[in-house]
Amino acid sequence: MAPEVVEAFSEEASIYDKRCDLWSLGVILYIMLSGYPPFVGHCGSDCGWDRGEACPTCQNMLFESIQEGKYEFPDKDWAHISFGAKDLISKLLLRDAKKRLSAAQVLEHPWVQGCAPDNTLPTPIILQRNSSAKELTSFAAEAMAVNRQLTQRDEDEEEEEERPIIIKAASRAVQLSPPSESQLAQRRQRSSAAKAVAAGQHLVAPLVLVADQA
User: Which residues form the Protein kinase domain (predicted)?
Assistant: First the structure.
């Protein structure tokens, strides 16, 4: 998860773009070459975070680690890794998304364009170590926990948007009367009735006079 995604999750930012995928690529390369993730979060207690359970403390520690963007290349695991690989990772795991390499630049990077060395990586051996396997399990658990919370957040937002807006009158003074009972409607009805009576009187008189003349 890139720093801008963490900020969007914590509501410090509202948008992020495809450059977060380049950060993820850097994390994947780091894991492939070393056997463990560059960013972790552990509160030190048996909170169940390693088993995929929620732990706000571990989650916050993971988020802080990502947002700080601090990681290392320990010599015991990275001494045999080429400078080109480290250079590519360091240009992907940048806190500022604008400074990261683009996908096209990654494809043009010397480490990607170059030939693979003859010596094999000890990553499988590292993964067999209990500590590294546990770290990867924790990393997967962290990702699952974050995904669950992001999904829950999206569902809550959708439910909030679909919820009908109900407006209740605070007092009787603001309640609306039916249109037919309003004072304006009643005045119009009285005015129309008066006009009808006047029109009837105006028409009847000439008819009577004509009858008298006949």
Answer: 1-112
